[in-house]
Structure formats: C-alpha cells, structure tokens
Amino acid sequence: MLAARGEELERLCTVASRVRDAGLVDAGRPGVVTYSPKVFVPVTRLCRDRCHYCTFVETPGQAAREGRSAYLSPDEVLDIARRGAELGCTEALFTLGDRPEDRWPEAAEWLDAHGYDSTLAYVRALAVQVLEETGLLPHLNPGVMSWEEMNRLKPVAPSMGMMLETTSRRLFEEKGQAHFGSPDKDPAVRLRVLEDAGRLGVPFTTGVLVGIGESLEERADAIFAIRRVARAYGHVQEVIVQNFRAKPDTAMRHTDDLGLEEYVAAIATTRVVLGPRMRVQAPPNLVDAAECARLLAAGVDDWGGVSPLTPDHVNPERPWPSLDRLRQVTADAGFDLAPRLTAHPEYVRAGEPWIDPRVSGHVAALAGPDGLARSGVRPTGLPWQEPDGGFAAVGGGTGRTDLHTAVDTEGRTEDRRGDFDSVYGDWAAVGDSAAATSRSSAHGDFRAAMAAAERDPGGLSVEHAHALITADGDELAAVTRLADDLRRQAVGDDVTYVVNRNINFTNVCYVGCRFCAFAQRRTDADAFSLSLEQVADRAQEAWDLGATEVCMQGGIDPELPGTAYFDLAAAVKARVPGMHVHAFSPMEIVNGSSRTGLSFEDFLIKARESGLGSVPGTAAEILDDEVRWVLTKGKLPAATWVEIISTAHRVGVPTTSTMMYGHVDNPRHWVGHLEVLRGIQRETGGFTEFVPLPFVHTSAPIYLAGVARPGPTLRDNLAVHAVARIMLHGHIDNIQTSWVKLGVDGTRAMLRAGANDLGGTLMEETISRMAGSAHGSAKTVAELEEIGAGIDRPVRERTTLYDA
C-alpha cells in the first residue's frame, strides 16, 4: 500500500476515507474534521540531540547572538499564553529540545540559577502557571521522558506527545543518517516512552516522519509499532503523518522533499492499518493549500494544532493557513471544521483515569457535551490545586467502609470491577507477553549448586540458585534442610510475630494492576474511602487490643490530596503516639511525590517527620520489567522501586522486602529478584525482612482473563522460601511466611523450610481476601502460638523492627 501510485493509490484512498468516515460516525461526529486552536511555546531551543534535518534547535552561541536566553522566562511564556487566550486559543503547545542541560553548561547554569534541577521540572512549573494565569491547556512535547517524569507531568497537562518518527535502527546507528548522534532518537527508547505513557494512562499524540531516508519496510514497521502500543493501552489519541521538507543550513538540505503521491500513500496506509477509531493528523502547513484536499481524501480527520498567533517554530518557513482558508478547504471536501481541546473528545468525556483531577476542572471549563471545545469559549485562569476529595478530615468515610469485616461474612459484591474489559489494557497482548515470560530453562547442576550453597550460601551465584530453586523430590528436601539449618544459625528456633492491624484507607484505584482484585472504581459497589477520623479510630482500637503497629496502604486514588500520606501518619500518631506507623508502598510514595512535587528523598523525610516509622516493600511483585509489564499496566518500573527503597534506607527509614510469585513468572525471575534484594541490602542494610507472597488467583483479573496460572504449587512455595533463606543468609536475617495466603498447614511447612516469622495478627485483611484467599483476615495471639506449637517451636512477640 505504501508503494501505491496512480489508480492503485486512488483505490487505496477510497478505502482509507471509508474507514475514516466509519470512525467519525462511531464517534458521534460524522463529517467533522477537527483542529486545536493553539499557541506554540518554544520553551528552549537548546537540545542534546543532533538531528540532521532540524532548524528548531540552536546552540547557546546562536541564542546569544539573537539576544535570546537559554530558556523563555515565565513572563515570556505567560505573555504568549495570554495573547492566545484573547484570540480564543485553548492549547499551549510546549515544544523544546531534549535535555539540553546534559549537553550545554549554559542550560544547566540557567536552570540552577532559577531554582530548577531539570528542564522538565521547569516545564512542570510553567504548565501550572499557564493553567492558573490563562486557563490554556498545556500539551507537553518535551521529547523523551522517563516513567517517573511523565508521572510528575500528568497532573499539569491533559495530554502529552512525542513523535516516534521511525523505528529504523539504521537511521540511528549509521553515520550520515538522519538520527546519527542523537541519543533520544533511539527507536527502542522512543517506543518505551510510548508504552510508559500507556501504562500511566496519558492521552498521547505520536506519529511518523516520512521521507527521512527510511525504506518502505521501515516505514511500515513504524506504523505497526504504533498500532501494537495503541492496542495494548488505548492511550494513543492521534497519529501524525508528517512529510519531510528539506531546510537550508541542515545536513539534509540537499535531500528531496517527500513527493505528494508518496505522502498520500503513507497517510492512507496509516489510516487503514490503524483503523477507524484512531485520529489521523496531517499538518496543513506542510503542503500547499490546494493539496489539503488530497490529505482529506486519504483518511485524515484532524489538522492538529493551528495558531492564529505564533508561527510553527519547527517549520518556520511554512506559515499556518488562516482558519478561514482551512475551513473553506475542509468544507470544499464535504466536511465541517470544529475546534477540539488538547485531549481528544473520547478522553475528555471519559475523565479519570485519563484526565488527572487537578486539571479536570480546566478541561471541563472549555469542553462541550461532545468533548470538543465549546463554541465561542474563551479560557480564563483557574487555580491549579490539590483535589479535596479522597477522604475528609472528619466524618464517616464513603462507600463500603465495612468491607474489612464484610469480606469474611458477605464476600465481594461482584467477582470483578465494572471496567474489567478496559482498565487493564488489551488482554490479547497481555496473553502473548505472558506466554513468553512464563517459559523457564534448564535447571543446572544440582550437586555443584548444593556444594556451593553449603560453602557460601550468602554468596550463591544466580546459576547455582536456579539449580536449587527448580529442585524437586529428594533434592528439594535437601534444599529445605539446608535452609532450615541456616535459619537456626541466623535467628534460632523462635517463631516471631507482631501484634498489628492492617488499615486499608481506600480501595479506589485506576492504576490497572492485572493481578489486583482489591482495586475498585469510585462507582463500584465495593469501593470505599475512610476518613482520617476512621483511620485514627481503628488505630486506637488496635492499641487498646495490644497492637504496637499499624500497617497502612491504599489504592492510588486520583482525588486524594497531595498531603494525604502525611495526614494519615499524623492522624495515627496524634491519636496513639506510641503506635509504630508502617505505611505506604513505593507506588504510594511515587504518587505522593508527584502530587507534592517533592523528590523521593524530601517526600520520605516529610513523611518521617509526620510519623512514618517504616515502609512496606510491597509493589515489588517481580523486579523484572519483562514480567512487571504483564502483571501491571501502570505501576512503577523495577528501577524506580529500587530507587525509592534505597532512598528510604539512606534517610533512615527501614523497609521490608517482598516478592509476589506464581503467576506469569518463572524460577529465573525469582532468583533474579532475590539477587536484586541482596544487592540493595549489601549497600544499605535497610531491609528488616523478606516476605514471599504466593499469588492468590481466584478473583485476580489476570487469572479471570485466562492469562495467569492458578498460583504457585507447594513445591514452588517450599523452593522460594528455602532459596530465599540461602541466598539472603548473612544479609537479611528474617524470612516471613504469609498465613493469610498459605493457611496454617502451609505456614508450618514454610517454617520448616527456612522461614522464622509469621508476620502479624493483622486484625483486618482485605487485599488477599478480595482476591479469594480462604484463610481469614485475622489471627489471635493464641492462634499464632498454636502454629508454632504444632511444629514444636517457641513463639514470641516482636516489634516491627524485630526487637523483643
């Protein structure tokens, strides 16, 4: 199709236009082509890349000669935005070079002088000012972003974008090609950005740049790469098909512009491959006005951003057509032209989780019932502030606040949440990935591995550990005996426990973890959020019953205020000063950090000052992104988990460590996970214990979708607990076993296989019970003592930090 010309191209365009028209009918706006009235905000023209076709980027010397600073000042940005608002624009397109501070000292010095540690931190601050001062909606196009950076930017922008451009490694790796010498144009890196945007639920614009030296096969590969990611996450709101135009004073100035026929074929092919629901854009200023009709005939349904005020700074030689001219061209082709917002209507109408609550009011102020821009609307500044929902300072909470007890007597209302088919992404793609990650490999030499484990258990290699963790029968019995001997050496025969209470303060969550049966939409029957008063009441009840710890974790509710985690810890300490607050998974710390704008370190210090005593090392699952991106749609990457945990240890906040296993993983992942934990402990010494968590499958979405296996076997459980004891010997003394997930008999078996700790009395447990665990949600001290007595082991109470 990409090679179609003449009559074949006309036939292709006929098909493409029918596909486009069907999509517009399905969207409820037949015959409507959209555009975004915008201002173009060139935050900085400095860049660390060297793309051979770009005239947008300049050096600090060029900027100085032109009388420009390294960055636009806030006043300059607001002046552009205010003038745009007066002209009826609704979008502020933030375009800038990739990470200029990494290449240019002048950029780093400017940021430091103005109090910012990165360009993206400055972009975030500018976006807030534009929202508050002008009401324009920021669309952020800052190039390559990490998962963490995108997570911090989502609360200040309804949408973001980054052109994929091409998936050709040849153009990136070969000297003289378009992307040689440009680290941010690595196709693998750019695809990772697209996928991370999907995991975070960011309405995202991307596209292909056609005619920069790619072959037709490479061009097709880029289109299909976008389709794959779009289908997996549903977040790609628009695909731009942009034609290359040579510019003077660039390395590619002698390269021919892309021909119109070839361009039209690329647009039509993109439309057919991506289907009727995708919005396909072609910039109207990169062809002659008379040629715009050809683009519409090829399946275009969006003109992108068009500005009545600012030039196209990336293509300054090609001015925007006037809106009157664009409207006439569109009408001549049989379509109506309508303005839209930065986020396309489907995402505007859906609201959360796509649109963050902190900008939802700004979006609603400009949106009509159809999700397009309201006719004649003029933006005005609105406060950008933390949402005041989530929980109240006083009161009775919201929703099914008795779920912690009712889950044992009445059970859950439904076996799955109401948005099961959409919140987790594309199940077919998840299943394909799971099939790949579940495959294991050869077991290795068991005798050599046992000899190595007996000689130096804490220094056991990954290969030897893999041989032990895949053992069965008599070999597995030998592994568990060694683990039990090592347990006796490390901590003696005492089985320990803590008297504690779990407090899940909300189960409202839109992250989309595919293993989690706890999370609910706000409107689901089992959804709840506790008030601060209820949290404090439960802590007081626990203290009165002899508890020394509360363990607090909750869903990632977009409406929780930024101070929520500090407020929760402070509420418990104010009511029960002596209670240890063990709270907030690394995912919650990421959430709190992005909401407050604090670094991980500053957030943890503030939480500690508010009463936090230690952090649960949950949200780890398997510390291998190959598995994590099957298990979860939007959770933090493994590297971020490691960074947060290591930072907690560095600022004096101890943590536990965990591993959830038995789903789409294999024994190599288990060993790799333990190796990561061992490495952290060698550096920080901040882990108090390791807690293996067998996957509870019954109501887990990933199991209900037919993707995951039904949890680990008894062999798996014994092997994981035993090898954990062996690999972590001399590093982490305490291995905990979960009575909630394994029951009494299973727990006793693990205590004979290297474990020494029972965890807590819990008093309430909702997360595993919602997933289908059949072993209750609380244990009395007498019941925990009976578990130890059944294997002739003494049982004693401990504190959170393992003091007597």
Automatic annotation (TrEMBL):
E.C. no: 2.5.1.147, 4.3.1.32
Gene3D superfamilies for this protein: Aldolase class I
Start and end residues of each stretch annotated as Disordered: 393-417
Recorded metabolic or biological pathway in which this protein acts: Cofactor biosynthesis; coenzyme F0 biosynthesis
SMART domains: Elp3
Recorded superkingdom: Eukaryota
Catalytic activity reported: 5-amino-6-(D-ribitylamino)uracil + L-tyrosine + S-adenosyl-L-methionine = 5-amino-5-(4-hydroxybenzyl)-6-(D-ribitylimino)-5,6-dihydrouracil + 2-iminoacetate + 5'-deoxyadenosine + L-methionine + H(+); 5-amino-5-(4-hydroxybenzyl)-6-(D-ribitylimino)-5,6-dihydrouracil + S-adenosyl-L-methionine = 7,8-didemethyl-8-hydroxy-5-deazariboflavin + 5'-deoxyadenosine + L-methionine + NH4(+) + H(+)
Coiled-coil boundaries: none
PROSITE patterns the UniProt entry points to: RADICAL_SAM (PS51918)
Keywords: 4Fe-4S, Iron, Iron-sulfur, Lyase, Metal-binding, S-adenosyl-L-methionine, Transferase
Cofactor(s) named in the record: [4Fe-4S] cluster
CDD domains linked: Radical_SAM
NCBIfam families: CofH family radical SAM protein, F420_cofG, F420_cofH, PRK06245.1, PRK07360.1, PRK09234.1
Function: Catalyzes the radical-mediated synthesis of 7,8-didemethyl-8-hydroxy-5-deazariboflavin (FO) from 5-amino-6-(D-ribitylamino)uracil and L-tyrosine.
Designated name of the protein: FO synthase
Source species of the chain: Rhynchospora breviuscula
